[in-house]
Amino acid sequence: MTVSEVLVIDDHPLFCEALSMTLQSALGVAKVATASRLSEALEMLAGGLSPEAILLDLNLPDVAGLDGLIRLKGAVPGIPVIVVSSMSDNRIVTSVVQAGAAGFVPKDSRRDVFVSAFREIWNGGSYTPDGYCPPAEAETERGPESNAVARLADLTPQQGRILQLVCEGKLNKQIAYELSIAETTVKAHITAILRKLGVQSRTQAVLIAQQARFASILHPPTQ
């Protein structure tokens, strides 16, 4: 399979430049678009950008953890998303795959590893890093984070955005103003969000979102 256009979402310019060069010189990608924030990427996609693959860092200025992947998959469900991150913890890789990523490539991988991984994915396969150990099926089914990811993946892009604002402590009136929609529409979305997540309150919905974020891993506390 030949991929002619790729979107790279990462806020490190030097890494974007190096990755773009690899995509173009080693894989023959004709055009590489870049975005430093998820919001910027979503605007580019809504504006008509049609990449055949997307490379996504988990930790961006406006999103962290699986939030970005889940929202991106909801916005462009037909485009393969490859997570490229410096955080390659076994638990994160598992959740990324469960959330629908086409693969996971550690940022510190050698150039030939990137090339092999992208070729494998673009030919219909998937890629996880060497040394990755998938959890046992029973363990995967029991894990609270796995359950949270599955529920969040069912939200529409708008519902995902509203849930993010709820997590930020915004009231319905504030959410309506920020998204330029009616407050009654916000209430309807929140009712649908609670139903999809299988919870009864906003607080419970926030807890579900927090289970999928891995904030403690992506932003470890300083000693």
TrEMBL record:
Q: Which Pfam families match?
A: GerE, Response_reg
The UniProt keyword set, sorted, is:
DNA-binding, Phosphoprotein, Plasmid
Q: Which residues form the Response regulatory domain?
A: 5-122
| Biological-process GO terms, alphabetical | phosphorelay signal transduction system; regulation of DNA-templated transcription
- Locate the coiled-coil region(s) and give their ranges: none
SMART domains attached here? HTH_LUXR, REC
- Give yes or no: UniProt keyword Phosphoprotein: yes
4-aspartylphosphate is found on 57
Q: Write out the GO MF terms.
A: DNA binding
Q: What sequence ranges are listed for the domain HTH luxR-type?
A: 148-213
PANTHER family referenced in this protein's UniProt entry, alphabetically: HTH-TYPE TRANSCRIPTIONAL REGULATOR YHJB-RELATED (PTHR45566:SF1)
Annotated protein name in UniProt:
Response regulator transcription factor
The species this protein was found in: Paroceanicella profunda
Taxon lineage = Bacteria, Pseudomonadati, Pseudomonadota, Alphaproteobacteria, Rhodobacterales
